[in-house]
Amino acid sequence: MLPMSSQEQTEQRRGQRLLFVSLLFGVLLNFPLLAVFNHNGRVGGVPVLYLYVLLAWLTLVLLTAWLVKKVN
């Protein structure tokens, strides 16, 4: 087996991190956790569930962009 170059190792680590992020957000946006935030409370007039989903989605986008753009 040929040794991997540093570029290949970096790409493999990036792929592993992106897989972890996708699994994490699969859990965060799954029913049992969403049910915790599904109540009549509001924050600034916005339902808590909507705010949770919006913040989780925004975090997913920013974390994914950071991982993809990160050089090492």
What report would you give on this structure?
With 72 residues, this protein is mainly α. The protein has a domain at 29-72. 72% of the residues lie in helices and 6% in strands. The protein is built from 3 helices and 2 strands; from the N terminus they run H-H-E-E-H. A two-stranded antiparallel ribbon has the order 1-2. A hairpin with a 2-residue loop joins strand 1 (42-43) and strand 2. It is elongated, with a radius of gyration of 17 Å. The protein starts with 5 loop residues before the first helix and ends with a helix. The model has no long low-confidence stretch (mean pLDDT 90). The chain crosses the membrane at residues 18-37, 49-68. This is DUF3311 domain-containing protein. Keywords: Membrane, Transmembrane, Transmembrane helix.
Write the layout of secondary structure elements.
Elements: H1 6-28, H2 31-37, E1 42-43, E2 46-47, H3 48-69
Helix pairs in contact: 1-3
Strand order within the widest sheet? Answer: 1-2
Our Rg estimate from Cα atoms comes to 17 Å
The gross shape turns out to be elongated
In terms of DSSP E residues, the strand content is: 5-15%
List the total number of helices: 3
Oligomer: single chain
Keywords: Membrane, Transmembrane, Transmembrane helix
Protein name: DUF3311 domain-containing protein
Organism: Hymenobacter tibetensis
Defining traits:
single chain; 72 residues; mainly alpha; 3 helices
Describe, in short, the structure shown:
The chain has 72 residues and is mainly alpha-helical. The chain contains 3 helices and 2 strands. The two termini are 24 Å apart.
